[in-house]
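Page 47, continued from p. 46.
Same chain as before, 184 aa.
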Amino acid sequence: MEIKTIGIIGAGTIGPAIACVATLAGYKTILQGVSAELLEEGIAYVRHTLDDDVAAEIITPQENEAAVANLEISRSVEDVCRQADLLIDATQEELEVKLEIFTLFDKFAKPDAILASTSLTIPISDLAEITFRTENCVGMRFRTAVPQSKALEIIRAAETSEATVAICLDVARRMRREAVVIQE
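Result:
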């Protein structure tokens, strides 16, 4: 499966940072947030970061324009699920919230979509076991300063398939991340 669209659930701190590197990698990226204010702040973060990269000559003005054009916003998790090939949960570190997100992922996502979480404290296997697609579930731990940091940990649960890991490694490469696979 080829990843064309990345859906990021959570427009708080980490979500917009992931959206920034995803759009820059050429992915259509949909950032979801619960409020218009959070989404506006997320978009402003992405634009500001990309403008800083242009000013620092890290990217060209054309790359900046293309990245901004790749970014969309949504208030609906369900709509994002229906469009994305890779869904990344970037919500707060609360088990109930993450379980609810993975329930929605399982219910509304495309059959072969990859379901990922940025969680540092909740095992991906706990989230995967509430789905009917444990082989498509993975952890993706981006570092806090996502655009500046090159590190990305791909957390593999016991049921995560080789194909899922390979696709996530390809996404990491396109995002210019140095990925390491960690067995949970």
